[in-house]
Amino acid sequence: MLKPTGALAKRIREAQSLSKPELAVKMLKQALAKGIPASYLLIDSWFSSPKLFKNILGLKLHVIGRLKDTKTLYRYDNQRLRLSKLYEVIKDSLVKDPELGCLLNSVPVLCGNGVEGTIVFVKGYKEPELDSTQGRKKTPEPKWVAFFSTDPKLSGREVVKKYILRWSIEVFFKEAKQRLGLGKEQSRSFAAQIFSVTQSFVRYSMLAYLLEQEPSQSTIGDMFHQIEQESGTVSFFERLWDYFCLFLRRCLDTLAQFFNLGPEFRDYIGAICSAANAFEPLKGCET
Length: 287
Prior knowledge:
The chain has helices at residues 6-17, 20-33, 50-57, 83-90, 156-164, 167-179, 190-213, 220-256, 263-277, and strands at residues 40-43, 62-67, 73-76, 79-82, 95-96, 103-111, 116-123, 145-149. By secondary structure, it is an alpha+beta fold.
């Protein structure tokens, strides 16, 4: 197998030498350099860490991210507490938000590396369902969740509402993986993997653009499901019609062995076929 050279080889070496958070910061720098405007970076709990928060603030961006209970300590009221211990301290002060329908409370904290922020604790928060398949075992919702924000001007409600906007990214990845080949590339080549991911993104972008040209307000997910259902219906009727035609031919071949089939009988069979072709779900079937 030929090894990549030039600029591609340089990019591969850089990607292999950096961690995922470091790659994320590098990609953000590239996006900002291209003139893509942004005020906030929304991240999930996998990427959330005081180190990344500090790097993002250095790019003149605020961060809103979901937190997970790790060994990271946050300074609050002259105490250094991990996330679960901090929740135990403030859980009795949670107040129900009438708009979100959840109990929440905002707590100002200081990270060990000097990053100041607000942790918003929420009880009753539920993620939207990506897969609503009947009979599928549902993942139990946590009793409480926590979000970190570096913007002191945002209320707890605004932090949660902005984080929910990130859910459209999860929908994109689900649709792209299930229907557009994302992550299905079998080559071990780094260049092939990058090309495959890029192609999946381009397919999704084209579908999103075409959807915007339609007057319908249905989501991309609805469009995919409609196409999938229509394709499945057509395939079913085609298979059913093929089976019916094969069964009819076998019957005719068997009768021909014992009888001399005259024109009248063949006209009768022709009438049956014409009636079947006129049946609406089977119209247009090439068979």
